[in-house]
């Protein structure tokens, strides 16, 4: 099976209107910049996007929001995007807010082949409305747990530092974030990498995502790697 694609446009060419996508990254760290740009150029619409956040107004998923390509966002944190806020308040965009740990675990459940999870997060809140709650004894304590279904995504689109032609991936530092668990969970996983090397060149001890999970891989170009919020220490007085 040849997993190597020439560029982002060919890798996402069969993503159609109405598809459900997982997009890796946390804030703007480790996002699949090239794939997002290709989706914007493709003008695919009606998308459901599962992502920790919605980018910012002029970068990341924010570019897709500007073009009205996203029908629904399933996210944990969305506070850095004014256009997202406008579309939400105007009723143009469906939004499902999920506790961050629940978001991560629903991705993992999909990767592990588990249909659902039980979590204490959200019990007794609006998050639990219309969902099944069960009581379990765990670690000597009985408490209520909320049932959440594993995600079902047509595509998972992730970004890694290095990858090989068999789809094995290595992430760098905090860019690892949601990428490994989403790579496991997509029916078709598309990985963009900064450096693509021949099979066998990566040390197996340092591979984060085995190639068995990756269906397509390409080498990205021109990464901006923007910083969402830059915080620096104040210079000490002399």
From TrEMBL:
It comes from the Bacteria. GO terms for molecular function: CoA-transferase activity. Keywords: Transferase. InterPro entries: 3-oxoacid_CoA-transf_A, CoA_trans_fam_I, CoA_transf_BS, NagB/RpiA_transferase-like. Belongs to the 3-oxoacid CoA-transferase subunit A family. This is 3-oxoacid CoA-transferase subunit A.
């Amino acid at each position: 099976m040849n997993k190597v694609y020439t560029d982002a446009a060919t890798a996402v060419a069969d993503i159609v209107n109405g598809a459900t996508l997982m997009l890796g990254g946390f804030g703007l760290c480790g996002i699949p910049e090239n794939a997002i740009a290709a989706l914007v150029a493709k003008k695919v619409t009606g998308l459901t996007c599962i992502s920790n956040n919605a980018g910012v107004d002029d970068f990341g998923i924010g570019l897709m929001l500007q073009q009205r390509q996203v029908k629904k966002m399933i996210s944990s944190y969305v506070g850095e995007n004014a256009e997202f806020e406008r579309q939400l308040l105007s009723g143009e965009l469906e939004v499902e807010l999920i506790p961050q740990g629940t978001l991560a675990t629903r991705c993992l459940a999909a990767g592990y082949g588990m249909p659902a999870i039980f979590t204490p997060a959200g019990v007794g809140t609006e998050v639990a409305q219309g969902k099944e709650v069960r009581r379990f004894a765990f670690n000597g304590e009985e408490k209520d747990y909320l049932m959440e279904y594993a995600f079902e995504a047509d595509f998972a689109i992730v970004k890694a530092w290095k990858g090989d032609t068999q789809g094995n991936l290595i992430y760098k530092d905090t860019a690892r974030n949601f990428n490994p668990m989403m790579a496991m969970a997509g029916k078709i996983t598309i990985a963009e990498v900064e450096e693509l090397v021949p099979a066998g060149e990566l040390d197996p001890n340092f591979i984060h995502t085995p190639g068995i999970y990756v269906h397509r891989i390409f080498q990205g170009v021109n990464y901006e790697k923007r910083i969402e919020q830059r915080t620096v220490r104040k210079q000490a007085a002399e």
